[in-house]
Write a structure and sequence with these properties.
By secondary structure, the protein is α/β, with parallel strands linked by helices. It is 25% helix and 25% strand. Helix 3 packs parallel to helix 4 and helix 4 runs parallel beside helix 6. It starts with a strand and ends with a strand.
Length: 320
């Protein structure tokens, strides 16, 4: 039979097929199917130099600027605190967030990355009002930690269940009305699209919130073999395809004129894939890929990324 190599093979993925073409029957008999090899960023740079594909005001790739590399090394303690599914309508989630902020209050991290959904979806109230009330509660908690409000960046990325204009990607930022309570408290609030891109010193970081792993499994023509864990197959597939959603449009709708926002070429330094699937991390082709997991569903665990030493830490907020 046909041998399937590592990866997840769905409709709309690019593949390499090995086999024999039968002149008599006109049939290509496939003996092996694999994904195209993903291209490490260093190889891409050899061809294109320091051209900036990532975005932003500079025409030069940040990875090629020595001054930024020096700043990165001189600040080894800067960190990104990454959480997903911040259900602000759940009192226990708010209590855990207060505990987390208390722990960081004396040494605020460089940034908090908060992925939606920002409500649990268990209430029949208006979702708009529920999300706004959740941000009011979060702002009240943050008011007790003025140093965090002043020093830390806050990145807010909407989830698939948050109020918006529909399921198509990329998703625009949350409406100003919803996050206004936070904007009044925080000095460095960034209300982002989904996906979003961040340049930190010499590193390119892509942030994406979508329940993609289940969709990839459901639409795979064959479930991946067990020689590697599922999340490894998943990460390799996305980097091989150079795209965040290698799925048919009826599964993951895309605004065609903005499809470039979903592309992963050249491969970034860090790819944060916030998914309701279990937390994971994997390094492949000079790219760190990780999922913080669902904050309320994983015993209030989250990830902390230190870009200086390029280190990832697992954290959990236990019972008081």
């Amino acid at each position: 039979g046909t041998k399937f190599h590592h990866g997840m093979f769905t409709e709309f993925t690019f593949i390499l097929a090995e086999g024999i073409y039968n002149d008599t029957s006109g049939v290509f008999e496939v003996s092996g199917i694999g994904l195209p090899p993903s291209e490490p960023p260093s190889v891409t740079r050899n061809y294109f130099g320091n051209t900036n594909f990532f975005g932003g005001p500079s025409s030069t790739c940040v990875g090629g600027i020595q001054l930024l590399k020096d700043v990165e090394r001189q600040n080894p303690d800067n960190m990104f605190v990454v959480l997903s599914d911040i259900w602000l309508d759940q009192q226990l989630v708010l209590d855990k967030l207060r505990t987390m902020f208390r722990g960081y209050s004396r040494c605020p991290p460089f940034a908090f990355v908060f992925f939606g959904n920002f409500s649990s979806g268990q209430s029949h109230e208006s979702s708009l009002q529920k999300v706004r009330e959740g941000f009011v509660s979060l702002a009240e908690i943050l008011s007790s930690f003025p140093q965090i409000c002043t020093d830390s960046h806050f990145l807010i990325i909407p989830g698939p269940g948050d109020p918006g204009i529909g399921p198509a990607l990329p998703r625009p930022p949350l409406a100003p009305y919803l996050v206004e309570p936070l904007a009044q408290k925080l000095s460095k609030l960034h209300v982002c699209s989904n996906p979003a891109r961040v340049q930190y010193c010499s590193q390119e970081i892509v942030l994406f919130r979508e329940n993609l792993i289940n969709k990839m499994c459901r639409h795979s023509i064959r479930f991946p073999d067990r020689s590697e864990e599922l999340h490894v197959h998943f990460a390799k597939t996305l980097l091989s395809q150079g795209h965040l959603t290698p799925l048919p449009l009826h599964v993951v709708p895309v605004y065609w004129s903005h499809d470039h926002a979903l592309r992963l070429y050249p491969i970034p330094d860090v790819l944060i894939l916030a998914d309701k699937y279990d937390a994971f991390s994997v390094s492949t082709n000079d790219c760190l890929v990780f999922n913080p997991g669902s904050f309320p569903k994983s015993n209030f665990s989250f990830k902390v990324y230190l870009p200086g030493p390029k280190k990832l830490e697992n954290c959990e907020i236990g019972d008081s």
